[in-house]
Amino acid sequence: MQKKRVQLSFLIRNENERLHRGGINALRYDPKNDRLYTAGRDSIIRAWDCKRYGSDMYEYSMEHHTDWVNDIVLVNSGKHILSASSDATIKLWNAPKGTCMSTLRTHKDFVKCLAYAKDKEQVASGGFDNNIFLWDINVLTA
């Protein structure tokens, strides 16, 4: 049997890196806290303080996805974020702290989009697995 050589390369991220390393897939603005959230192809969600300008706008990043973050929605008056990713998960975040609260693993393929019905406190998720799931925000954040 002939052995194959595989070349592997990766980039170790600078912990203080403020900008996305890839494209930005989604933006959500929180008017209550004057904060902008960006979802990137680098698997990171970043928070930006819109009261500041320039490089001082960056606040923190949320880094638990392992593939592109395709969409994000703000729920509960900006207290929580739901994110949809190509890692086939949806994650619930504490928005002000930037911490991951839970991971939903119902989709079998990329999760591409989220839709928030504020009046019903429900979020729908759609993915490449041809499924749509409906989530009750009050149950997820309880």
Automatic annotation (TrEMBL):
GO terms of biological process kind: double-strand break repair via homologous recombination
Keyword Cell wall biogenesis/degradation: no
InterPro entries membership: WD40/YVTN_repeat-like_dom_sf (IPR015943), WD40_PAC1 (IPR020472), WD40_repeat_CS (IPR019775), WD40_repeat_dom_sf (IPR036322), WD40_rpt (IPR001680), WDR48 (IPR051246)
An MF annotation (GO) of this entry: ubiquitin binding
Positions annotated as WD repeat: 17-49, 62-103, 104-142
Alphabetical keyword list: Repeat, WD repeat
A Pfam family recorded for this sequence: WD40
Name the UniProt record assigns to this protein: Uncharacterized protein
Species this chain originates from: Adineta steineri
